[in-house]
Structures are given as structure tokens and as C-alpha cells.
């Protein structure tokens, strides 16, 4: 299965804040810009007009515009960004330094209160990928996603493990850019 995934447009007033599943607004012009970019890509490559989006408005709004242009828009909670729990929506400067240090030192398994660990994000991403690979192995999928989700998916495709320390986490891709990820069904041991 091939997945073409675009990172959503840059949210408004997000600088300096921990933004995971906080449902933050995006400038409508930027949403339209990404929808138009996806529309041209689909036309150029003759791809199916189906777009997968997360329920967070920075992804969902792109899907809604594409739906007005004849796309089928499929909303999947599994595509949402990592859940930072009680950190979500807070200024990074307001989060206790010790908690951030604990997270950086146990990057794979630490979860802010009420949130999910990076390991859980990887499990969620891998589960969705496996399900989609089984259901859609013949045709490419298009999605609008989030930086953390895209990084996790990229690492899974590359056969990398969940990073144990923050320094192993890749830089996020740019807003409005896309990445092609090629997934192959996992072979099962039938013996």
C-alpha cells in the first residue's frame, strides 16, 4: 500500500504551546491552499478521490473542502496527533521542567497525565497501517495528518524502533508538504 500523507496547515497562535490533540484553528486560506494542492496532485497522478483525515479541525477542514470538490472524506480518530494529556494546549514554559526531563529521558514510555506515550502512538499508527494495508493493498491512500503521526509512520516503514530518548526523534516535516510511505503487509508465520 502506498500512503500519500500531507501535513496539515500551520495552526494559528500555536507558537510556544504544546499542541497535540488541542483542536486549534487554522487560517481558512491555508486550508484551501492545501486542499487545492491535494486536488492537483490527485488529478496529475490519476488517484482515487478519497481522503483520510483526523477529527482535529486542522486536518478535518481540509477534508471538508475536498468533499465539496467531489472527494469522499473519511474521518479516522486513529489519524489524530499524539495526546499530550494535561500538557495539551499549555505553554511549554508552564509545564514543569522535571516532567519534560522525565519525558526526554524515557521518551518511548513516558506519558503526561491523561495522555499517551510515544509507544502507544506507534501502536495506534501501526494498527491503522496494518488495517489499511489489508483493506487497500492495491490502491494508494491519501491522508492529511500531523507531524508526530507522520514521524511515527515514517519510522515504522523504515523498520525503526520507538525512540528511547528525545534526541532520536526526527524533525517534523514542513506544513503543507507531503510524504510518500510504502507499506507492505506483514508476513505471518504459518508453521
Description of the structure:
The mean pLDDT is 93. The protein has five helices and five strands, in the order E-H-E-H-E-H-H-E-H-E. Strands 3-2-4-1-5 form a five-stranded mixed beta sheet, with helices on both faces. It starts with a strand and ends in a 9-residue tail after the last strand. The radius of gyration is 17 Å and the shape is globular. The chain has a single domain (2-182), classed as 3-Layer(aba) Sandwich (Rossmann fold), CATH 3.40.50.1240. With 191 residues, it is α/β, with parallel strands linked by helices. Helix 1 crosses helix 2 and helix 4 crosses helix 5 (147-157).
Question: Which CATH C-level class is it?
Answer: Alpha Beta
Within the CATH hierarchy, at the fold level, what is the topology? Rossmann fold
Q: Rounded to an integer, what's the Rg over CA atoms?
A: 17 Å
- Strand fraction equals 5-15%
**Spatial order of strands in the largest sheet:** 3-2-4-1-5
Amino acid at each position: 500500500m502506498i500512503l500519500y500523507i500531507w501535513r496539515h496547515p500551520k495552526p494559528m497562535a500555536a507558537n510556544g504551546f504544546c499542541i497535540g490533540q488541542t483542536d486549534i484553528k487554522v487560517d481558512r486560506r491555508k486550508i484551501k491552499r492545501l486542499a487545492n494542492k491535494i486536488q492537483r496532485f490527485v488529478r496529475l497522478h490519476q488517484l482515487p478521490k478519497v481522503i483520510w483525515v483526523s477529527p482535529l479541525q486542522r486536518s478535518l477542514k481540509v477534508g471538508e473542502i475536498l468533499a465539496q470538490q467531489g472527494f469522499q472524506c473519511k474521518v479516522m480518530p486513529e489519524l489524530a496527533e499524539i495526546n499530550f494529556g494535561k500538557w495539551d494546549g499549555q505553554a511549554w514554559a508552564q509545564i514543569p521542567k522535571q516532567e519534560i526531563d522525565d519525558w526526554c529521558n524515557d521518551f518511548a514510555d513516558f506519558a503526561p497525565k491523561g495522555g499517551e506515550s510515544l509507544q502507544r502512538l506507534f501502536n495506534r499508527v501501526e494498527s491503522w497501517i496494518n488495517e489499511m494495508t489489508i483493506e487497500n493493498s492495491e490502491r494508494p491512500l491519501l491522508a492529511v495528518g500531523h507531524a508526530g503521526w507522520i514521524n511515527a509512520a515514517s519510522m515504522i516503514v523504515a523498520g525503526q524502533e520507538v525512540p528511547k530518548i528525545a534526541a532520536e526523534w526526527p524533525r517534523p516535516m514542513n506544513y503543507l508538504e507531503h510524504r510518500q510511505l510504502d507499506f507492505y503487509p506483514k508476513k505471518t508465520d504459518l508453521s
